Structures are given as structure tokens and as C-alpha cells.
Amino acid sequence: MKTRGSFFLYTFLLFFSASAWAKNEFEQWLDRQERISWDRLKANIHPEGTVPGVVIASPSRQDPDYFFHWVRDAALVMDVIAGGGDFALMDRFIRFSRGNQLAPALTGLGEPKFHVDGSPFDGPWGRPQNDGPALRALTLTRYARTLLRSGQKEYVLQHLYRPEIPAHTVIKADLEFVAHHWRATCFDLWEEVKGHHFYTRLAQYQALLEGSDLALLLNDTGAADFYRRQAFALATELRKHFDSSRGLILNTLNRDEGLHYKDSNLDTAVVLAVLHARSQFVPVDDPFLKNTVEALEREFHRIYAVNHKGFPATAIGRYPEDRYYGGNPWFLTTAALAEYYYLRGHLAQGDAYMARIKIHLPENGAMDEQIDRDSGYMLSARDLTWSYASFITAVEARKRAVGSRHPAEASAVEIF
Ligand code: NOJ
Ligand code: NOJ
Q1: Catalytic: 257?
Q2: Do residues 189 and 72 touch, judged by C-beta distance below 8 A?
Q3: Is the N or C terminus of the chain more exposed, i.e. has fewer CB atoms within 10 Å?
Q4: From 27, 86, 91, 191, the catalytic residue
Q5: Strand 193-197 relative to strand 378-379, pairing
Q6: Backbone angle region of 20, left / alpha / beta, with phi > 0 → left and psi within -120 to 50 → alpha
Q7: At how many degrees (to 10) do helices 131-149 and 71-83 cross?
Q8: Are 225 and 233 in contact (CB under 8 A)?
Q9: Residue 325 in contact with ligand 2 by CB distance below 6 A
Q10: Residues 174, 188, 267, 368: which is the catalytic one?
Q11: DSSP codes joined into one string, 284-296
């Protein structure tokens, strides 16, 4: 009896491990594209001609010129690097960022982009963009927590968060800026509209909350209390973005400058906000978020000819009224929908979005910024660093979604 029992047990285990191991063609592609994304992402960190710590948005130097360090793009990219545990790269980024903060910039810490020698870009631009310091604070606060867990308190106190005013460390300076400027309008993440934005506000809210926790850990109790009170006050403002008559989350309120033709107020920025802030304030299964995602899917399906060719899922843009390069789908917004579905445990829908990305990629796996809305060919800035980061975070979300499933379910993934 005993032998027979274990025979069945082993057959059972063999069956499930074989089905889990035998990766289908789609999963092999995911693995390969993930490796390519890491390589190409890293190639955009401190490339030749830049100072250490620089993350260029793209190697493209004209049409468009993206050979700059954007605070937002860099924060999102370095969050991926932090996840990979590269201490040396993080250290250079931390020192470079502190240099950015100290450089005399037109709008102080709200300055959106820097030259690759670390000096602020002071040509005409949509400024300030106050999501930058919030995103950088989030990335570095989370990294600081990792360092504290591995006993590196000295490094944290010296370079990341030291309780003193005026601030001499990068996180502390960012948090002070966020805590004192969140009431002001600023340009959005797309650098086009000045107002109060859900994306910016959710990043600020979460930066203040997690910053408050870090402050407490480092015995900066007064600051911890102050940051938390600011976060609660900001929460009241965030609630105003939930439009109960339409059941949607609206990205911009109180527009006071910039583009005036974004009539739908539908923006993938809302989804990016949830992915980047990872805040309990808006759980991934929030019904308003779901409605917003579905409205974006419908709208982008309707307006892009490339979505009428029978490809899987929907190529997703920034917002329907977009005119930048004619207004097109972007990789990072399409990957965002994949990640959104993975986070909700909807593997097949997430996979459909990843399969969609695959269709628009060249053989070598290079990812530009956009996808032509008619032809489906890539467009605008080549090798956009943020495109790679968005692919990697989507794949990571997929791994977690697969890992938390019953093995039989995991092997039932739809194949494209
Ligand atoms: C450059 C910005 O980065 C982009 O988001 C914007 O659409 C164009 N300028 C047009 O304003
Ligand atoms: C234009 C995008 O709209 C903006 O979000 C980004 O920061 C810059 N390009 C650089 O990638």
C-alpha cells in the first residue's frame, strides 16, 4: 500500500512540475524580452558622455532630443534597479540626485530635467513637475528600508535620510519639498497641463506616508507627525478626483495653464499612478479604477486604426486627445495595462497585453517610445529607458500572479 501511495504521489508531482517547467513559446519570449529589457535599460544608465548617476530618458539626440536626465523617468527606472539589488548603481544615483537638488534650478526641486553633466536644463519647459521629488522619495525610501533591514543604518543616515533642517540628505529634502508644495498646481507627468493631477497627488500622498514611517524609524518624530498630517490633508483632495456621476477617476482638476483640449479627462496616468505609488488608498480592484481602465480600452480601441486589425488586446496611448507625434499608443502605457491585470490576478488579460507588445517589436527586442497608430511600427524616441522599466515591472507582476496560483491553473495560461 505504501509503495502504491507514493507511486501516485510521484506521478502527481511529476505531472505538475512538468507542466510548470515546460514553458510555452510565449513564456520563452517573455524571458528573452525581459533579459533584453534589462540590458538595454542598463545601457541607458551613465552611458558615455554622461556623469555617474545619470539615467538618460533615451539615447535619441534629436527628433526628439531625450538625451537628458528626467527626475521622473530616473526615479521609476532606479526603482527597478533597486529591486535588482545593485548597490553601486544606486549609490551613484543617490549622489547625483543630491547634486541635482543643490544645483540652482529655476523651480528648485520641481525642476523636471537635467543635462547629462548634472546642471539643470533651463530652456523653456513645462515646469515645475512636482511628481519628480515624490517619485524619487518613494524609490529611495523603499531602498532605505531595504538597507536598514540589512544593517546599513550608517549609510542611510549619511546619504538618504538624516533628521535635520535644513535638509542635507536626498530623501529628507524631497519630503520637505513635497510636504510644503503639494497644494500648488504644477505640470503633469506628460509635461503639458498645469493643474492638480491624480498622478502627482497619489505619488505625493504615498511619499509622505512612507516617508513618515521612515522618519519614525530614524527617531525624527516631529517630522513623522508632520508628513502624516500633510498626507491626510492631501487625501481629502485626492478624493475629489473620483467622479461619482461618471464612476471614473479624473486625472486633472483646476487646470490653470497648458493644453486645453483634453476634454475627456481620461488618462492612463491614473493607472500609472496606482502602479507607481502602490498605495492602499486605491487598491487595484477599486471599481472607479476598473471603470477608468475599461473606458480607456474602449476609447483607444475606437480611435487607433492599429486596433482594428485583429491583434490581441488594445494598444494603449497616454490619453485620447493626445497630439504628440500625432497621438499614438505607447509601450509603457500598454505594459501598464498588462501589469494592472496581473496585479488583479487576471493572467489571460495581462498576457494578451504582453502578446500585443510583442507584435510591435522588431526582432532584436528594442523598444521605442511609441507605436504608430496606423501602421503599428515603432515611433519617436528609440530605446526609451522607461519602456524597458515598464516591461520589467509587468513581467515581475506576472511572476507573482503565476506564483500565487494553483499549478493546474498556472498551466492553463492562454497561448498567443
Ligand atoms: C515634450 C513632452 O515631453 C511631451 O510629453 C509633450 O507631449 C511634448 N513636449 C509636447 O508638449
Ligand atoms: C515625454 C513624456 O511625456 C514624459 O512623461 C517623459 O518624462 C519624457 N518624455 C522623457 O521620457
Answers
A1: no
A2: yes
A3: N
A4: 191
A5: unpaired
A6: alpha
A7: 20
A8: no
A9: no
A10: 188
A11: TT-HHHHHHHHHH
C-beta neighbour count of 62 within 10 angstroms = 7
Give the number of the atom of ligand 1 that is nearest the alpha carbon of residue 323: 7
Residues of the chain with pLDDT under 50: 1-5, 7-19, 410, 412-416
CA distance 228 to 160: 19
What is the CA(64)–ligand 1 centre distance, in A? 10
Name residue 232's amino acid.
Answer: F
Q: Is 241 exposed, middle or buried (0-12, 13-18, 19+ CB in 10 A)?
A: buried
Q: What is the pLDDT of residue 22?
A: 66
Tens of pLDDT along 251-310? 999 999 999 999 999 999 999 999 999 999 999 999 999 999 999 999 999 999 999 999
For cell 480607456, name the residue. Answer: 296
User: In angstroms, how far is CA 272 from the centroid of its own chain?
Assistant: 6
Cell numbers for 144, please give them: 532605505
Phi and psi, residue 369, nearest 5°: -80, -45
Residue in the structure block whose three cell numbers are 497644494 = 183
| Whole-angstrom distance, CA of residue 54 vs CA of residue 205 | 26
Q: Which atom of ligand 2 is nearest to the CA of 66?
A: 10
Report the amino acid identity of residue 182: W
Q: Would you state the cell numbers that stand for residue 121, as one nine-digit string?
A: 536644463
Query: Looking at ligand 1, which atom is closest to the CA of residue 190?
Result: 5
The answer, yes or no, to whether any atom of ligand 1 lies below 6 A from the CB of 73, is no
Q: Is 286 exposed, middle or buried (0-12, 13-18, 19+ CB in 10 A)?
A: middle
CB atoms within 10 A of CB 12: 10
User: Residue length, the chain?
Assistant: 416
> Which DSSP state fits 328?
-
User: Where do the H-state alpha helices sit in 44-112?
Assistant: 71-83, 87-102
Q: Long-range contacts: 325-328, Cβ < 8 Å, 24+?
A: 325/370, 325/379, 325/380, 326/373, 327/373, 328/304, 328/370, 328/371, 328/372, 328/373, 328/379, 328/380
The three grid cell numbers given for residue 90, joined into one nine-digit string? 544606486
- Write b or e for each residue in 368-393: b if 16 or more Cβ atoms lie within 10 A of its Cβ, otherwise e: bbbbbbeebebbbbbbbbbbbbbbbb
